[in-house]
Amino acid sequence: MNKDYVEFRDEGYWVTDTRVSLDSIVYAFLDGQTPESIAQSFSVLTLEQIYGAIAFYLAHQSEIETYLQVTKTDFEAKRNASRESDPMFHQKFADARSRLRAVHE
Predict the structure, then answer these.
(1) Domain with residues 1-59, CATH architecture
(2) Residue 8: helix, strand or coil by DSSP?
(3) What is the 3-state secondary structure (H, E, C) of 38-89?
């Protein structure tokens, strides 16, 4: 019996029939989390789906690593473009973050 635990849709990899990205499972796995601890973070997924997603990643590791790098590069480019388009907003946000950190220290 062959089950598809991961699907490619909307320009990304997703746990089949869910809104959980493969990225989030892979990053947790690479961070050293066990499938059981990942399941606690993603209560909408079964342990079988998590193991299936990890198995998919391991079987397609080169392809997924490339995809993750492209996604990360694209995110950084969009973030930089956003900062350049409205620097005042981002400065206010950074200032607020600094004040919040100071309060909690």
Answers:
(1) Orthogonal Bundle (1.10)
(2) strand
(3) HHHHCCCCCHHHHHHHHHHHHHCHHHHHHHHHHHHHHHHHHHHHHHHHCHHH
How far, in Å, CA of 80 to CA of 95, rounded? 18
Domain range summary for the chain, segments of one domain joined by +: 1-59, 62-105
Residue of 23, 28, 27, 55 whose CA lies nearest to 39: 28
CB 6 within 8 A of CB 40: no
Exposed (0-12), middle (13-18) or buried (19+): which is 31, by Cβ within 10 Å?
exposed
Cβ atoms of 38 and 29 within 8 Å: the answer is: yes
Confidence of residue 83 (pLDDT cuts 50, 70, 90): confident
Q: What is the pTM of this model?
A: 0.76
User: What is the identity of the amino acid at 65?
Assistant: E
